[in-house]
Design goal:
Blueprint: H1 3-15, H2 21-48, H3 53-60, H4 64-71
Helix pairs in contact: 1-2, 3-4
Organism: Streptomyces iconiensis
Protein name: Homeodomain-like domain-containing protein
Amino acid sequence: MAGAETNETTAAAEAAMDRDPAVGLRAVAALRRLAERLEALQVDSARTRGWSWDEIGTALGVSRQAVHKKHAKRTRR
């Protein structure tokens, strides 16, 4: 991650623990969006490198079927 992105991610993680639910929930939502983008990038990378859906699912801690259902439409190869 680039320096600015790292700083933003760190700030969001800290804000997610804020006592004000409005601040904390916004930060949680931002972190969720970031995690989804990162997962998509890494799944694409793994598929490009020939990883099976089973290998990707294992790495993510989910079933092959779950990861395939979530990402197959985007990663046709």
